[in-house]
Amino acid sequence: MDTTLAAHPPRAAMRLQQAGDIWLERYVATTRNPKGQRLARTRFERYLAPRLGHVLLGRLTGDDVREFRLWLEKPGRLRPYTVTHVLSDLRCLLRWAVSSGLIERSPFPARVMPRIAEAVPSGFDQSELATLRALGGRVGFVVRFLLATGLRWAEACRAERSEVQGNLLVVANTKSGRVRRVPLSAEIHAEIRAQIAAAGTRIVPYSAKSPGSFSRIVRRRSAIAHFHVHRCRHTFAMRWLAAGGNLAVLQRILGHRDLSTTMRYARVTDELMEREAARIADRLK
User: Fold this and answer.
1) What are the Cα distances from residue 153, in Å, to 205, 206, 227, 249?
2) Does residue 148 share a domain with residue 94?
């Protein structure tokens, strides 16, 4: 018998609070990265446990889940994406409970997840790009590095000199946990060498936990009111495709698990679609 479960109340008497504690300790701790673990615990403690923690696990119903969703969606409580994350955690917990033998089947309804309109990626226009590229000092270097690589902020902050191999940056500590290689242009390669010579082994001399403060610095210096570091990633992807870059290669560079995630950028411009259609039409002739 599972000793971890044996130390808790009998399965028939186990409440969602107790099952959730085990789920966090065993399943979440072994399947999610540290940030994912913290978020799951926060969502459980703030929303799941206070609202459903007292319910016997075996007596939880689909209507309980539906009422929970309505509670989460009350005006001013949570953003739609947060509602989706909380419900996803509940669904995951219940699936884990089934696999652990705590319940026979999950009561999570098939059509309870809210539908969220897909957000169109927002990149910088040509004028904004010119302004950002002209920024001086290490702030300007970091912005150009982000625009040239499409790295996530935390990935950029962890990048080191030893990971620059020829004209590629080997990104090992990624969101997905998989190693990937990002091409470096001659211009950004030269800037990286100069930056490392001046500052040491790390390429980006900022904390991985400070994207907000860095973005505020750039907003002040550039007067681009809606600057955020992640928009550099969007801009990289959009410019890659606008220049005729391969979608599958872009997927590898960005580190997306699913091509459908990368395809969001392919929908950004009608001009790209029209140009590709003309190219294919010429080939078919």
Assistant:
1) 12, 10, 13, 21
2) no
**Which segment, 2-11, 118-127, 215-224, is predicted with the most confidence on average?**
215-224
Q: How confident is the model at residue 199 (pLDDT cuts 50, 70, 90)?
A: low
The whole model's pTM is what? 0.67
pLDDT for position 51: 96
- In this structure, the answer to whether residues 245 and 134 fall within a common structural domain is yes
Q: Do both 171 and 58 map to the same domain?
A: no
Residue 187: pLDDT above 80?
yes
Q: Which of 155, 171, 151 is nearest to 163 (CA)?
A: 171
Cα(148)–Cα(188) distance, integer angstroms? 7
User: What are the DSSP calls for 25-52, one per residue?
Assistant: IIIIHHHS-HHHHHHHHHHIIIIIHHHH
Cβ(114)–Cβ(80) below 8 Å: yes
Q: Which two tokens stand for residue 109?
A: 């309804």
Q: Are residues 262 and 225 in the same domain?
A: yes
